[in-house]
Amino acid sequence: MRLPAAIAKRLGYALVLLFAVLVLNFTLLYLAPGDAAETIAGEAGGASPEMLAKIRRDYGLDLPFFDQLYLYLFKVIQGDFGHSFYFDQPVTTVIFENLAPTLLLVISSLLIAISFGTFLGVFAARRPNGLLSQIITVLALLGYALPVFWTGIMLVILFASMIPLFPTSGMDSGPLGASGFGYIWEVLHHLALPVLTLSTIYLAFYSRLSRASMMDVLGADYIRTARAKGLNERVVIFKHALRNAVLPVVTFAGLQFGALFSGAVLVETVFSWPGLGTLAFDSILRRDTPTLLGILFFSALIVIIANLLTDLAYRLVDPRIKSAAKA
Amino acid sequence: MNTPPPAVPAEEPVVIEVERPWREAWRMFRQNTAAVAGLVTLTLIVLVTVLGPFVYPVDPFAPTGPLLLPPGEQGFLLGTDQQGRDLVVGLLYGSQSTLMVGAAAAAITITIGILFGALAGFYRGWVEEVLMRITEFFQVLPPLLLAMVVVLLFSPSIYSISIAIGVVSWTSTARLVRAEFLRLRELDFVKAERAIGARNARIIWTIILPNAAPPLIVSAALSVGVAILFEAGLAFLQLSDPNVMSWGYLISVNRPQILEAWWPVTFPGLAIFITVLSVSLIGDGLNDAFNPKLRQR
How many angstroms separate the CA of residue B262 from the nearest CA in chain A? Predict the structure, then answer.
């Protein structure tokens, strides 16, 4: 399949997925027990009768299921994802204010996990029973079994009272903080612990993955050929083997984005990082359903975009994909 | 096989042949120290959970001592939390929610996963297309966020939490089962069943599925671990059954005081960690036992 046609097909499919997320959102809201108008209003000042009447009118809550769904989708197409009655602002406004910190946290965690993980995995693959391989096995076990929010809390205890090297809460030092480059430094300083917490889980995952993948590749004939013709071991590892071993890592980077978002919700809550995760937690406390549903939609949107980019990256890294039939 | 079989009593070798793979796996599992340690630990946790309330029948939510008492003081082995509750009681009763939700959610995960994977892998064609598109759809939604929405809308209870976790985490099981079915459906013993005219339902559930059991058991063990972590995460986000004590809940209510009191947050977290670690060690042990060739990895 040619590249543009393939991308167009992926884009069309992405739109279908987004549409499905909206239908799911609406169906969940529809099926929820209790008065839908009160669910939508949440705990915003006890929800006056006028407000409930307005919600009923806006959402057409007296209409049959499909009419309500149609009304909901029609509003979404106009960019109206509902109203957060807690903030008394459109949901989109509330979400966009919290989007950048989450993206910063998630993307830096992913990049750190992938780069360090691949690095560890590549070296471990050369000695399948060596010390580094053992360390990775233990790390993977810890990464799987440690509750990420608890690891975060332990780090907060450690760094807030014992070793005050890094701030344990928020994203900056408030209005009295620095500006310009000083501000960037401040944010990075605050980012350290959340990124450490979130990337540790995936670090183990990527080191295990790249180790297995690298071991596969190192057993291949073309590696033996490269070694036989007397190439430097470093060239063999980094130029011949790594390029092929990195493919599964790229695939999983896209697939893991959703899981990464889930981890971010917990990590942000622990470190009061002002992103979508903290907003989701606060929405639970306030019973702010429209905002929570909006967060679900926009995080699915980000996962879909991440998958599209992964797909694109994969096509660029592996030229075979263009000619190969769909797997 | 031209020579006639030697005159050996027929019943003896047949029985051994049938049982060998499972026995072999159990033998391999027993030799794996870490896996056995996991199994012993998990068994102990289950026993304590089941027997604890009979041996020590109290209300786990009722305060019984001073607030935030450090471990070891006034006879409170692990201290008390910010509401004066004995943490030993909290840990003892908190495992109920963890284990119940862990088991129920994993059961839902496995059931949906088998259903989707088996039908998609067996029938292929449009059935596979539809089921796999649904699987991809669920992979796009961040699992914890979807679980949060479901639990919030249907109000937190053991049931809503188990269902929410099960519904958000079945996709990898479905993919695994589908891959197994795609592999097994082409094998001779399945073709033989088809040739003698077996119904599809029989081929799917009694011929192919038992042969897909080994990887499925490993994946089930991992699902239990994931479900426990989800339950703890939801409880940490204050989405836990208000009538059932849970480790995640203890962490959640005691978090504001972590700088004055480390113990009410540390011990429940350790309990979650040890439980998931045991499950994970068992899973790894099963994996090695069923795939001895992969053990060098």
Answer: 7
SS3 of chain A? CCHHHHHHHHHHHHHHHHHHHHHHHHHHHHHCCCCHHHHHHCCCCCCCHHHHHHHHHHHCCCCCHHHHHHHHHHHHHCCCCCEECCCCEEHHHHHHHHHHHHHHHHHHHHHHHHHHHHHHHHHHHHCCCCHHHHHHHHHHHHHHHCCHHHHHHHHHHHHHHHCCCCCCCCCCCCCCCCCCHHHHHHHHHHHHHHHHHHHHHHHHHHHHHHHHHHHHHHCCHHHHHHHHCCCCHHHHHHHHHHHHHCHHHHHHHHHCHHHHHHHHHHHHHHHCCCCHHHHHHHHHHHCCHHHHHHHHHHHHHHHHHHHHHHHHHHHHHCCHHHHCCCC
pLDDT at B266: 93
Regarding an ipTM greater than 0.90, the answer is no
pTM: 0.88
Winning range, highest mean pLDDT, from A68-72, A253-257, B162-166: B162-166
Evaluate if residue A246 carries a pLDDT over 50.
yes
Cα of B47 to nearest chain A Cα, Å? 21
Note the pLDDT tens digit of each residue in B183-225. Answer: 999 899 999 998 998 899 999 999 899 988 888 988 898 899 9
Structure tokens at A129: 């029973």
Q: What pLDDT was estimated at residue B297?
A: 40
- Judge whether residue B16 has pLDDT over 80: no
Which residues in chain A are closer than 8 Å to B238, comparing Cβ atoms? 281, 284-285
User: Helix or strand or coil: residue B86?
Assistant: strand
